Structures are given as structure tokens and as C-alpha cells.
Amino acid sequence: GSTEGGIPIGENSTGGGIYVIVVTVYHTIPTGETFEFGSNSVCQHPGECIVTVVVEFIYTEHNRSMRDLVECSPPENCFDVNGDPCPNGCDDMNQCVDNPSEIESLQSGILIGSEFQRLSEQLNDLIGPDHYEFFIPSSPDETISFADFQEFANYFNYQTNEFQFIAEEIIEFDNQTRTTNYEFEVSDLFNTSIIVTVQAEVPDSGSTNTMEILEVESNIVGNNTLYQWEQYDFYDINTYPDDDLLRLELRGILTTGIEIDWLPFKMTRLYSMRIDFRLSTGESLSHILMSID
Question: Is the pTM of this model over 0.70?
Fold first, then answer.
């Protein structure tokens, strides 16, 4: 839980403002798995779980925090009829448990055991700690499933760096104001693309005027359960008259739902879209969408 209160001003005070104390309780069961326990969680093995209490003091106005870790003493072993320690711990009747899965099935809370920690370390190395977060999907349709980390790493390294440009479509052309869709394929399997819509003023044939971009917008089409796209508010337009070139570049965040061996998380990557036009006519020349983080 948490509590709030004002910090008094005085000779021995830590400063003015509001502080928050957050207490988090973890239970490690006899098989070694660790669970984060909430208000509705119950330890099914009283006296046998190792209890870890994390106390965090957060001073909100000073943007400082201090985290204390308090571990209770490990529980005493329980014993079988021969006087030997139970290898898998005991049930609530103080009897040895033969199958460790019986213990796991009784637990409530969020499993944060060794597999979770190992996957976190692997993701930190591959995509960085700021580019993913674990979550609880509301349906299986929110994640792409991979059997193991290596299978996901192959997907990450070879299939998510650059998306293929597949179509250009003029959807409106009125008095030199042209609106065009440029489609970049995110996944052919899930029939998902990012559409960049560019509204531009293009010159008449033989005119001395040059192309001018008026508005740019991008959206994801297809499977918006697995994928979400968020375009940055700003975009860059650069002109190179000597090369008869106008370059449009916009950026955005693509979020993808992933599951590796039943552990689900959302992965985010920053992408840059670049479309080159001929400055004198407005003709599009090249198109690229690629990851830049």
C-alpha cells in the first residue's frame, strides 16, 4: 500500500514537500519461484515462504527516491517420515509435496521467477530496457508467439529493421493540390501496413514553381491489435535545388505485442519514413521506412 504526508520544515527535516511510502511484498515458495503479492494474494504455505519486503520512500517534489530491501529469515525445513528435509517443501498440512507444480498451482500473484528474470536480461541486451514492457493480454490475438528467445531474436534482427514499400496511390488531385497515399508493409502474414498520406501542391508542367508539402499524416491499417503506430507531431522537409530534390522525413513509434514461451510483453521501436520527390515536378522518387534505434 502507500501513504502520503507532509514533511515538516525544521532543523532535522529532509526538506519540504510530499512523500510517498510504497511497500511491496514478495514470497519465495519452497521450489524457488518468487511471486509479487497484492491485496488479494494469500501465501499457501505459512511459515515456509521466504518473505521479502521492499520499502520505497519517494520524495515527489525533489524527484528523489530511496529503496530499502528487508529480507526475513529463511524458513526452517520441513521433514518427511524419515526425518529428511522435504525437497519440494510442504503443503498446509505440513506434509511433503511430491510434485512442485502442486505448489505453483496454489499460488496467486505475479510470477517473477528465474525464467522471467532471464528473459528480462536477454531483452535488455537485445533491444534495451526502455523498449519493452511486460503486460497481461486480454486475448491471444494481442501477441505474436515465439517458442524461445532465439526464435524471437531472429525475427527482431532480420524482419523488423526495414519495411517494404508496396504501393503509391493518388487519392485526390484538384488544381495542383495532390493527395497521395504511400503504403509500407509491416506484416504480410497479418495483412498490416502503415499508410503515409501526403498533401502537396505540385507545379504545372513548364512552371518555374516548385513542389510544396502542405500536410503529412500516417496511420496503421490492418491488424491494430498486434500493432499500434504513433506518429511524432513534427516532420522534416528539406530541399536540394541543385539536385532537383525534396526530401520528406517523419518518425513514429511502432508497438508490437510479443510472447516468448508464455511470457507476454510489448516491444517499441522508433522508425523513420523517408520519401524523396523531384522538386520541380512533385514526382516521387524513392521510399524507405526503417528502424533507427
Answer: no
